[in-house]
Amino acid sequence: MTGPPRTIDVHAHCVPVDVMDTLRADGGRYGIEVADQDGRSAVLIAGRVQTRPMFPALMDLPRRLAAMDTAGVDVQVLSSWIDLTAYALEPVAGARYARMFNEALAATAATAPDRFRTLATVPLQAPDRAAEELRHAVTALGMVGAEIATTVDGRELDDPELAPFWSAAEELRAVVVVHPYASLAGRGVSRYHLNNLVGNPAETTIAVAHLVHGGVLERHPGLRVVLVHGGGFAPYQMGRWDRGYSAAADGAEEHLTRPPSEWLRQLWFDTVLHSPASLRFLVDAVGIGQVVLGSDYPFRMGDPDPVATVRAVAGLEGHDLARVLAGNLATLLAEVGR
User: What's the predicted TM-score (pTM) here?
Assistant: First the structure.
């Protein structure tokens, strides 16, 4: 690739081969067990959280690069498979695991440095250690931020104990990608793939609602948060959230000095909506500067042709099109650590 990237994908998952090899050889050191069957792997975290079987494509680098070339994606920002966030681990093991994972992911990206950037995994169940790991990832490993789950082993993202992580992310100007995990746990959404079709966007909506209404964004206004799957249902419900704020509905306004929609428009939203019409609404709702390209590679519910999806958005052309495909995210990445 010559010249600056024309397309940058913020939402692409990767599991380094070295991570799985390490866990197979010495999983006890990290509190993680690996089970291999029929060419796929699953892991048991802290003896109580079982992941789904892993897609081999998560670890196949040549296949990834070929898919990027086919889709016209110049750069992927690599993040962990969210099932491997491993917040169930106790703090020491969690910090050890995150360091191992991040070093392996950085090494993977270094095999094609013009094609990859990386997001760290952090032990958010231990916020001080998560802040320390984020600092190490950005300053020593050259990572651009972190991917975090929508809940932290049952805790919501406005939990006051998470403040050290938010402070570190704000200080580092790190990109924080919020990704759904264990969507709508306890609800009957296993049929019809509803755990993904409905559950994932709903889970993101609940998480960002806690960030907004819990005052996290008020306390840390410099946070640079990216929401996947177009922000779930949040952009479509901004008016409802603002009504709750103005009506002082059961604490909806308690931690806020500004309407929720103003905070939502300071976040970033990926393009994984599978609909040019929905993307047109998103751009109009949050502003052209807040939308960034995403694919959700390599999952079947991802967008296999994300650049074409964005190019199909009515009225999106020229400089505005370039901003969504690369410019907005390039600006975010360039400012990390400054």
Answer: 0.97
